[in-house]
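A.,

Following up on our hallway conversation. Structure tokens first:
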């Protein structure tokens, strides 16, 4: 059997569903071929938790950011200096997750946009990619990304992609990557699979967004990094590739985007 190495590019290992059994989560990920995980920050006020997990595990990295749901409640959501200071950590490989979410009424759209732009500014300053959350905000998201790219270049990924084809196209046009989660495996995700098939292979990433959105056949259960293997298998099928080849492609893409992670991997 061919050994594979998968990177879960987006998990929330500090959330109780995973943190309460972290040794088991890490062991199951390893057994499933998941070699590396990026654990994602959603608040500056809780930024130490992902950092401590990354510090304790050689194969885990972290990000620092303010989720759009927290744009109103976090006092430093738009504080560039505070965000930059929080990201000053050897295992912090990205800014975010940041972005726009109009599905829930958590965070005024103007405040979300201001926080998003502040985090883009930090990503640009530090030369780190930004991890972007976009839900029910395709037009505004594309407009901000394109506007900010005119101000100065930066890199990033649309994580847990579930938006429309136009946002995917516009994000790819500015050099972004697109990451797919367990949603790709859902029975009713034919449109999403068509979008995934259209994404160039050198721009594809995979993730869990655990503990949420467990892929088939684990849908309805708490998600964890080991389950990245199911999303990877579906993405391989969509692109007509063997699973080991898609694992190699997505891992190489992840290392190319998150350059601090690549250097740490040697």
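Then the amino acids I'd put at each of the 266 positions:
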């Amino acid at each position: 059997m061919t050994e594979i190495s998968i990177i879960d590019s987006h998990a929330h290992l500090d959330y109780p569903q995973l943190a309460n059994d972290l040794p088991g989560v890490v062991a199951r990920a390893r057994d499933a071929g998941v070699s590396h995980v990026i654990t994602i920050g959603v608040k500056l006020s809780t930024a130490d938790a992902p950092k401590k997990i990354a510090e304790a595990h050689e194969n885990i990295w972290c990000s620092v950011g303010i989720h759009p749901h927290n744009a109103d409640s976090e006092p430093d959501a738009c504080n560039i200096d505070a965000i930059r200071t929080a990201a000053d950590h050897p295992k912090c490989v990205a800014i975010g997750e940041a972005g726009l979410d109009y599905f829930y009424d958590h965070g005024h759209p103007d405040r979300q946009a201001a926080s998003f732009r502040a985090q883009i500014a930090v990503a640009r300053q530090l030369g780190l990619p930004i991890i972007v959350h976009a839900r029910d905000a395709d037009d505004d998201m594309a407009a901000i990304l394109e506007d900010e790219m005119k101000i100065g270049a930066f890199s990033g990924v649309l994580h847990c992609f579930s938006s429309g084809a136009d946002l995917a196209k516009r994000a790819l046009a500015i050099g972004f990557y697109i990451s797919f989660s367990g949603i790709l495996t859902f029975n009713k995700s034919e449109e999403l699979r068509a979008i995934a098939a259209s994404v160039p292979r050198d721009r594809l990433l995979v993730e869990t967004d655990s503990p949420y959105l467990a892929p088939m056949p684990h849908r309805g259960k708490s998600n964890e990094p080991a389950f990245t293997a199911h999303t990877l298998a579906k993405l391989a099928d969509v692109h007509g590739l063997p699973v080991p080849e898609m694992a190699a492609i997505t891992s190489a893409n992840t290392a190319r985007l998150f350059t601090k992670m690549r250097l740490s991997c040697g």
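Strands lie at 6-11, 34-39, 60-64, 92-101, 130-135, 156-158, 177-180, 204-206. Curious whether your intuition agrees with the design.

B.
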